[in-house]
Write a structure and sequence with these properties.
Shape: elongated
Oligomer: single chain
Keywords: Membrane, Polyamine biosynthesis, Transmembrane, Transmembrane helix
Organism: Sporothrix stenoceras
CATH architecture of the largest domain: 3-Layer(aba) Sandwich
Strand content: 5-15%
Structural class: alpha/beta
Pfam families: Spermine_synth
Number of domains: 2
Distance between the termini: 107 Å
Protein name: Spermine/spermidine synthase
InterPro entries: SAM-dependent_MTases_sf
Length: about 600
């Protein structure tokens, strides 16, 4: 007989039937719709989050690629010059992106199944600065063999091209995983297929403009930010950026060597003392030393001294802004090593009716400082001198290393804006300055905006009726730029005479690159009206260079311009042709600079 407990367990339970008054077909349908809506919302939210992450990663990849392209161009500028380095840069960048975009499927098939292509990006990015150092440094001097026209193409094809191509392939792969725009808004298939590529290119171009290498940051910025803004350090930061975006993998271990090698041994880390010491160790056997350097708004600026011969120069990228002898005392001014800068001082020697009699009553405007050869001479003569220089680093180095006197007015801003302001504030047409010296040059070509008709008209307005202007231009007489610039100057200042720094090589039919100074007066019709008085002892400032170069000797006549192309006046809104001509001029200037200063000095920067 079973116990009461067992019997109780076997008794069936009576189910509790709920009140079915609430269960109607309508309520049941509403419940089903509610559940379906919640499921749909969850699916859409997950898809939106997923696609947001994909598109965010795509934007980061494209931004890093754009920053890499800009940093590469900036890194090659000190070795090849800004203009030669940029000749084929845009074409190479576009080719790399197209190659990666169109071959992403093929590249993925080359990898083991399931291996993402993106894991190689940090490794490739970390090798870019090391590879560019090997291909462009002073130990092997590859740049001399490559030449300025094709050297940048070769270096970037071996370094930045693979990085950009694989980045583009990763972007294409990510966009394939996202919902197509045509699926959302029902666009035609061919439009939907084209939109990812067009959108990616647009984002890249926007990022390229936003990450353009400025070379400097605010002086009040933290030191770490200033360091990261330099050329090579920015490449290291880009490699770290790639590493933060991709999935962590053991392959990143192989990026440690190139990263540390660049960080510790690369002499091009401009803001690090150990990198400067490394550069000087490489230059010491050749008798050169870098005294100071800075990456600034006009390029890489440095002070380099030749210890054996006793002179120092100021360089900007692949150009020299001036130089002076260190083995001669500055008495009362330094002894310059280039005669063309002394020739500019000859504005004081031109006799013009109504000319100011005493230097102490004269005012001078100097556009473009260099090392300050002409401004220092003007100040030594007692002339009230205003210097307009866009680059603060140039002014600082000229003051610290090249005997630029303090008693001058320094205007550290763009000359176009400054002269616009002066002309607008000027009450009469009589001008303000007795002498104007126009001496701007960097990167193998002059800033085109400072040789336009409009800027020269500003200088004409600022020059007194009895004033004289001297304009320095460096160009190849076999090319059209110098012909166009002279035509533009003469359209504003009809009375001009032109002189070369050195005589033309007789019988030469090749390149004829020379520094010239164009002397003009505000009034007059013929260049013959410009005559130089014989210099007195006080004019020479106890300088041997001025004794030989102060009075110009080698005059240029119209038949010396050998270009058969028709030149036209350079206007503010019509500078494209001159910019194209300047590319050829910059290539010629690069070759000249390699003869003036050894290749190793340019490459070690």
């Amino acid at each position: 007989m079973p116990s009461k407990k067992t019997a109780a367990r076997k008794e069936p339970k009576i189910p509790v039937i709920p009140d079915d008054s609430s269960f109607t077909p309508e309520s049941f349908e509403r419940e089903l719709k509610s559940l379906a809506a919640k499921a749909k919302e969850d699916t859409w939210a997950r898809a939106a989050r997923r696609e947001t992450l994909i598109y965010g990663r795509v934007v980061i990849f494209l931004t890093l690629a754009a920053a890499s392209a800009n940093a590469s161009l900036a890194t090659l500028s000190p070795v090849y010059g800004a203009i030669p380095a940029g000749l084929w840069h845009s074409v190479l960048v576009a080719s790399a992106l197209f190659t990666g975009w169109s071959s992403n499927l093929y590249l993925r098939r080359m990898l083991p199944s399931g291996t993402p292509l993106s894991i190689y990006l940090p490794l490739i990015a970390s090798y870019v600065p090391l590879s560019q150092f090997v291909l462009s440094n002073g130990y092997y001097s590859f740049s001399t063999g490559f030449g300025a026209r094709w050297g940048p193409v070769i270096v970037e094809a071996l370094t930045i091209f693979p990085l950009l191509a694989i980045t583009a392939a990763c972007v294409a792969t990510d966009l394939e995983a996202a919902t197509g725009v045509d699926e959302i808004v029902r666009l035609p298939r061919w439009v939907g297929d084209a939109l990812p590529g067009i959108g990616s290119w647009s984002v890249f171009r926007l990022a390229e403009g936003a990450t353009a290498f400025a070379g400097t940051v605010s002086s009040s910025a933290p030191a770490a930010l200033s360091w990261l803004s330099t050329r090579v350090a920015s490449q290291l930061a880009i490699a770290v950026g790639y590493g933060c975006v991709v999935r962590p993998t053991r392959i990143l271990i192989y990026a440690i060597y190139p990263f540390l090698n660049t960080l510790i041994l690369d002499p091009h880390l401009a803001s690090s003392s150990w990198a400067l010491n490394a550069a000087n160790r490489g230059l010491k056997p050749d008798g050169w030393v870098v005294l100071d350097r800075r990456e600034s708004i006009t390029g890489y600026v440095s002070v380099v001294e030749n210890l054996a011969q006793g002179f120092r120069v100021l360089r900007c990228d692949h150009s020299l802004l001036g130089g002076e002898w260190t083995r001669f005392p500055a008495n009362p001014v330094a002894e310059p090593i280039y005669g063309v800068f002394v020739m500019l001082e000859a504005v004081r020697l031109i006799d013009v009716p109504g000319k100011v009699e005493e230097d102490t009553d004269a005012k001078a405007l100097v556009v473009g400082l260099g090392i300050g050869t002409a401004p220092a001479a003007f100040v030594a003569h007692g002339i009230d001198t205003t210097v307009v220089e866009i680059d603060p680093a140039v002014h600082e180095f000229a003051s610290r290393y090249f005997h630029l006197p303090e008693n001058h007015t320094a205007v550290l801003e763009d000359a176009v804006g400054y002269t616009d302001k002066l002309v607008a504030e000027q009450s009469t047409e009589d001008g303000q300055f007795d002498y104007i010296v126009h001496d701007v040059f960097t990167g193998g070509a002059e800033p085109i905006s400072l040789f336009t008709l409009e800027f020269l008209q500003n200088l004409h307005s600022l020059l007194k009726p009895s004033g004289v202007i001297a304009i320095n231009y460096a160009g190849d007489f076999a090319l059209t730029p110098i012909k166009a610039v002279v035509l533009t100057i003469r359209s504003v200042f009809p009375a001009c005479r032109i002189f070369r720094e050195h005589p033309r090589e007789e019988g030469s039919t090749g390149a004829d690159f020379a520094n010239v100074v164009i002397f003009c007066t505000k009034n007059g019709e013929r260049g013959a009206d410009i005559k130089f008085r014989a210099p007195e002892k006080a004019d020479l400032l106890n300088s041997e260079t001025r004794k030989h170069f102060l009075v110009p000797k080698y005059e240029v006549v119209d038949t010396d311009f050998r270009s058969t192309d028709e030149a036209r006046v350079v206007r503010k809104n019509d500078t494209e042709q001159l910019a194209e001509w300047h590319a050829e001029s910059a290539l010629g200037h690069w070759a000249v600079m390699r003869r003036v200063v050894p290749a190793k000095v340019w490459e070690m920067w």
